[in-house]
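Handout, tutorial session.
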Amino acid sequence: MGISWSSTNRRRNNNNNNYYQNPHHNSLITSSSSSSSYSYPPDPYSPPLPHPYPPPPPPIYSPYYYSNAYTTCNYSNPMMGRPNCPNFTPYYPFPNNGWVGIRPAPFMAPAPAPPYVDHQQAKKVRNGVNVHKDTLKLEVDEMNPDHHLVSFVFDALLEGCFTIFYFAKEEPNCRLVPLFPEVYIPVKVPFQKGLGQRFRQPSRTGIDFSFFESDDLSKPSSGDVFPLVICAETYLPYVPIEECLVDPLPSSSPNMQITEAVIEKNDENTLHVRVIRQILWIDGVRYELREIYGIGNSAAESFKDDDPGKACVICMTEPKDTAVLPCRHMCMCSECAQELRLQSNKCPICRQPIEELIEIKIDSVD
């Protein structure tokens, strides 16, 4: 007895073919012959196109499938027919992975909190003398046409003296040191108290600027050496001996105003003065003067509802008494300034960043 391996293999091959191949069409048995069958007609003939079909789109691989699109190609088991459909593309009826009308919310970064702005009240100091910096100019000395003299308008509540320096440097403890004492000796000129006085340097005490370069005159030198420095110092008031026994002696530190400027030439080759800064020394404390825009018409006692220039720009009802630094706009009342510093750090007038708020109480008598 022998075993035919060929017949066994043939049966195995037939079984495999039946498993993987598509089933045959059912035969239609006629009454005339049991062996004859009817087959489907061939596809209608279509003429060839002049151009070949475009290549199919590349497959899109995604780990997400819609729930109604599962087929045998959705499974990773190779026995479920995955090799028969390698280019299967999942079907998405909606663009958001099967969810209707749902879009991810855009990411909105939280608004940063405004930086802390210091709010403090200004300290009131009384200056005994003030030089109007917009009136400062140089005049030709009639007695010596090659030299120039300094002139300006000033207000003085006390008596004192002016000292004119050229190329001087400010040092601690209210000291001014000339850089070239051998070229020009500082001139000291006394003044009386009064408002709106005009000062002019005495003749033959000026200086010849032709010895200096234009670049040296038009800007401060290294170490804050200014070409022109005017020191206005007030004398300490006389105190009787009887009052000294009752009250403590006043401070012996001088009160002075220092004006530092540069000298420039215009198109007509004439000299004019440009003030860089003004400094106050009061009771040994140094203050740098800065203009406050809008402080001239902000006194609370003279405030009227029909004057919009004196009202706070935010509430429009209270008088303005708070200045913004560094832009120096006095435009708000103290209550609105307290609220503004918690919400924003921009000036209501110029929109520059606010570094500090200063509350300035102004009396009408001042």
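The second record follows below. Compare its token runs with those of the first.
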Amino acid sequence: MIMNVEVEEEITFNLKDLNEGCGSQDDPMVIKLDIANFTVHKVLVDNGSSADIIFRDVLKKIGLEDANLSPVKTPLVGFGGSEVNSLGSIDLPVSMGEEPRRITTMVRFLVVDTQFANNVILGRSGLNLFWAVVSTYHQKMKFSTKNGIREMSCDQKEAQKCYNLSLRKGEQEERGKRKERNEVEEADDLKRFKLERIEPAEQHKSVELVLGEPDKITRVGSNMNEALETIMIEFLRKNVDMLPR
């Protein structure tokens, strides 16, 4: 039996891979990809993500707003620690590199309708489809093609723009949350204030505590029977000096 064996080139990184004038090695890895015959910028390469994600507004821009999506029930976790339900999944052709060292393959994206600084997130699944290896220190990604190793460098200007935008968005969300918390606290304070107040439970009428002195009055319930009302008024008049003024 004869087996076809592919000879793979070794993917390595060394000091020569460091770009001159390279900024911070802590920048997120941001590249551009060709997706469904459109060049899409601001693609975040995130090998910490188990999913490949494309955002709904990107589908609109490339004319796939009305595409049929396959249902997905599992929510995504990681957007600010909260769960986000995807609208569904879609398979799209994705190309990396330039000819003759170019690879095109189908990638299954989860479609999410939320605001995000990047257009696409390429996670572990997508990276594995391209046999891609990422070095954040070198700010590069390399992958094998039938014509040799191809490399892509991080667009650090775009990466920094996206990062700063995400920070501003996070600050805006935090301000919004603080505002909501303050509004809730104010509402709670108002509720407590209302509960602490002693309010008549029924209609009332004014009664002079000291006959002939109309400035010294109080209120009693108007629904009391005559006998109980008489007892209440006499009690108040006897203890007028103890009542708050």
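Points raised in discussion: The CA atoms of residues 206 and 219 lie 4 Å apart.
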